[in-house]
Amino acid sequence: MNPTFQGSANNIIAKQLIRKTLLFAGLTMLLLSIIIGCVAYYFEKESLQRQFHKIESSYIDSIRTALWISDTEMIDALLMGIGDFHEIEYAGIYVNGILFSETGQKSTDQEMDWISPITQLYDGKTYQLGELHVQKNDGFVKKQIFRTVFIAVATQVLSILIICGAVLWLMYHSVIQRLLVITSYTSAMSMESLGTPLILEKSSEPPDELDALTDAINHMRLNLHHEFIHRKKAEDSVREHRDNLEKIVEERTGILKSTNEKLIQEIDERKEIESEREALIEKLQDALSDIKQLTGLLPICSHCKKIRDDKGYWQQIEQYIHEHSDAQFSHGICQECAKKYYPDMELYEE
Question: How far apart are the C-alpha atoms of 117 and 96, rounded to whole Å?
Answer without folding.
Answer: 11
